[in-house]
Amino acid sequence: MSAYDLVVRSRRTVTPEGERPAAVAVRGETIAAVAGYADPLPAAEDVDLRDLALLPGLVDTHVHVNEPGRTHWEGFASATRAAAAGGVTALLDMPLNSLPPTVSTGALDAKLRAAEGRCHVDVGFWGGAVPGNVKELAPLHERGVFGFKCFMSPSGVEEFPPLGADELRRALEEVAGFGGTMVVHAEDPALLREPDGPTYAEFLASRPGEAERGAVERLVALAAQTGARVHVLHVSSAASLDVLEEARAGGLAVTAETCPHYLTLAAEQVPEGRTAYKCCPPIRSRANRDLLWDGLARGVLACVVSDHSPSPADLKVPDFAAAWGGIASLQLGLSAVWTEAARRGFGLEAIVRWMSANPAAMAGISRKGGIKVGNDADLVAFDPEAAHVVDATRLHHKNPVTPYDGSTLTGVVLTTWLRGRPVDGEPHGRFLWRAD
């Protein structure tokens, strides 16, 4: 009888201790041993990747699945297929863009009914903090959501309004009281304006980096005053980095993320009318992009997550003032970030830290985020040398709209194992809940 159900070997296994030759032995759904590459390990199945890389499954804590209510934008079946194809084995669904938004336990129940039996990877949920629902936050926390998302500026959908200054303070006090986490879209509405016209330059000017910095300053001050744990979402402007670094140095429970599109795209390359590039906050200059990479290298930005926010093609009209703002990249994040990271001299260890270990730690997703004994056997066979041209029509995203269409990216996911089982087209994902 075999000691293990599965052994996966690779000369480039990325573990918490670094990249090294290793054999990962799986029993049931769990990593049971991490041994030497050539060690004899009797198993029902033994896969030797040789010089291909073996990564832990990625953890994407910022995904807009949009189901129920806007399932024609995206849904659990299509989003989680895309996730698995991109090496993501755990994702957290954002509370807005679905109808109803996840701002009460009843809305969470609707979300669970929509997702049941449709998930190809493991899925957890953020709750939402909106005006008037502060009494719903503790019940949602008790149900096991991973924290709460709020906006400091308009969200783009009327059913998920932003919190005013007093409402934000009250919500942070409430969340601090039960030890929860608030994840925040931080832009100062006083510094935002409607674009003067349809061009990308006009759209970019309407959402300056100073709007992010001002909101982050206010959020950090509130975190200090309330004791709340806060996480700043999708940092696009390097103007915020020094504020975040000072908060971190001061011992505040403040973390921050950025996204593949801010690290791989630049305002100078956005074609006029190609509103697949539109997102809020916006893609900024090449010089700003370089500073974001520096912020990652220094640990000021801890996580790289997709902010996958898709829409049908008819909402991406060729007018940057009028088009829906959101980028679809869930399936492409790993290869997009790896393409640019490798060019800048980073290794796969950094990718795993930014896209698996740190997001799992930030959200408190237990048993994910690293190849180590006791964790779920979420594994990814990755060819870091293979190049491919993105064809949006062949992605698993429900709508073939992405700024990466036609781009040549490096790195291909060959196999994704979820809890020791290859993702094979059948929905074997489970719901994730916050661990107390």
TrEMBL record:
Residues 54-423 form the Amidohydrolase-related domain. Homotetramer. The keyword Repressor does not apply. GO terms for cellular component: cytoplasm. It comes from the Bacteria. This is allantoinase. NCBIfam families: allantoinase. Its cofactor is Zn(2+). The gene is allB. GO terms for molecular function: allantoinase activity; cobalt ion binding; zinc ion binding. Keywords: Hydrolase, Metal-binding, Purine metabolism, Zinc. Pathway: Nitrogen metabolism; (S)-allantoin degradation; allantoate from (S)-allantoin: step 1/1. Belongs to the metallo-dependent hydrolases superfamily. Allantoinase family. GO terms for biological process: allantoin catabolic process; purine nucleobase catabolic process. Its EC number is 3.5.2.5.
